[in-house]
Specification:
The protein is an alpha+beta fold. The chain has 4 helices and 9 strands; from the N terminus they run αββββαββααβββ. Strands 1, 2, 3, 4, 5, 6, 7, 8 and 9 form a 9-stranded antiparallel sheet that branches. The protein is elongated. Bound molecules: flavin mononucleotide. The site of flavin mononucleotide (FMN) has 13 residues, from β2, β4 and α2.
Length: 175
């Protein structure tokens, strides 16, 4: 690994996230999604990544609006996802604000997404009530934290934030 790793880390992380949304075999397909609970604790759960847009710096997944994460987000949109690729020995954490886009509100992303969900899969979103409970959680990513492990102990860790113009700012972090 070299200085070049820091130069490419932001683009590489987003490429893996996009692949994770498209490819069910990708290790980035099922990240963990964390929220803050109203009682002051945290909550983390596995989700299936459904889409990502590196230009907008957004990523999204589907949910049942009755689940705890939706109540968490309503109270506090701060959220984080963690992805891990064991073969690459690469961890990516994506932090940002989550929003809930509900089908019943006619949110275009939710309408489009639900039209592609087979009736068999409605059970994941409230069964017969799926039309009233289906929602998309979209996270606007404000920061990435990328940790590259290596056999023998050598590590690299980069923190990525974005300037007002959307240009990534990459800093070395203690690994
Ligand atoms: C492999 C796997 C994939 C999952 N995918 C989703 C998903 O895409 N969306 C979702 O809301 N829950 C998904 N779940 C269920 C969540 O992990 C969680 O149990 C559920 O959403 C309730 O969590 P909450 O009440 O904390 O929001 C998945 C669970 C597993 C094990």
């Amino acid at each position: 690994m070299s200085e070049d790793w820091f130069g490419k880390v932001e683009g590489d992380a987003w490429r893996l996230i996009v692949r994770g949304a498209r490819d069910v075999m990708s290790p980035f397909h099922q990240p963990a999604f964390a929220t803050r609970r109203a009682d002051g604790g945290g909550a983390v759960r596995t989700i299936v990544l459904r889409g990502a847009d590196p230009r907008e710096r957004t990523l999204w997944f589907y949910t049942d609006a009755e689940t705890g994460k939706v109540a968490d987000i309503a109270a506090d949109p701060a959220s984080e996802l963690v992805f891990y690729d064991a073969l690459r020995q690469l961890q990516v954490r994506a932090r940002g604000r989550a929003e809930v886009l509900r089908l019943v509100d006619g949110a275009p992303l939710a309408v489009q997404a639900f039209s592609a969900v087979s009736e068999r899969a409605w059970s994941d979103y409230g069964g017969e009530d799926a039309r009233t409970r289906f929602a998309v959680v979209r996270v606007s990513v404000a920061a990435l934290d990328v940790l590259q492990l290596r056999r023998g102990g050598q590590r690299r860790r980069a923190g990525v934030t974005y300037g007002p113009d959307g240009v990534p700012v990459v800093v070395r972090l203690p690994a």
